[in-house]
Amino acid sequence: MGRYGIWRSLRHGVDAKFAAEAEALGYGAIWVGGSPPGDLAAIESLLDATQHIVIATGIVNMWSTPAEEAAASYHRIAAKHPDRFLLGVGIGHPEATQEYRSPYATMVDYLDRLDDAGVPVEGRALAALGPKALRLAADRTAGAHPYLTTPEHTREAREILGDGVLLALEQKVVLDTDPERARAIGRPAVERPYLHLVNYRKNLLRLGWAESDLNDGGSDALVDALAVHGDAETVAARLDAHLDAGADHVCAQVLTADGADPLPALRELAAALGLNR
């Protein structure tokens, strides 16, 4: 999937035209977020519309999609598009479901059921933030897909995962050189829901951020770290900082004002990253 990809929620629009443009720009993968439905028909349509870009789920939620359904979709899509689909799965967070309990045991059970259904280890990845989940990702999947992290977390994650395990993470970006305007775009995407969710707060506190950084919409420093802003070269440098810290792949989630088209920013970023040269 190369060094650089795109993270985009289904809710914000990921269609065949978007996928074809991303492929033409030279991005190696599109990570489809927003807990896509278990039939993964949307994923299949993106693969049908493209030639070589990898499509990954970021992520299929273990609570809403039974492992057997995810496995059936995996086999259907992988047979049609060999080596171009990665099944990213994850536990979500306790605030999202009334049935959320024993996260680690649930992840282990889900991976066991994927094993039983014949989904290969190399065909799946696990959403992971903390050390225990990262070790599980290394042991039972192709690798980890952290979300809402910093290069400091990337460095720690690589140490836990060890060599030869995929580390593919998401980084929010705002292509705008005006700090106040950029924060006005980035802060809502950081605060809601993530700064109100236990697992993300614990991870940020573990990385050294204070409670005061996480409250009241997040401090400017925290927002700048989690939704990096600047011109295309500045943003590209931040993506490269993750690679320098041990990531194999960074997927940029481009944030825009008022639901604007992200493709102009993705074109600028592709040029700054030297894609398709």
Automatic annotation (TrEMBL):
Signal peptide: none annotated. Coiled coil: none annotated. Gene3D superfamilies: Luciferase-like domain. InterPro entries: Bact_Lucif_Oxidored, Lucif-like_OxRdatse_MSMEG_4141, Luciferase-like_sf. This is LLM class F420-dependent oxidoreductase. It comes from Pseudonocardia zijingensis.
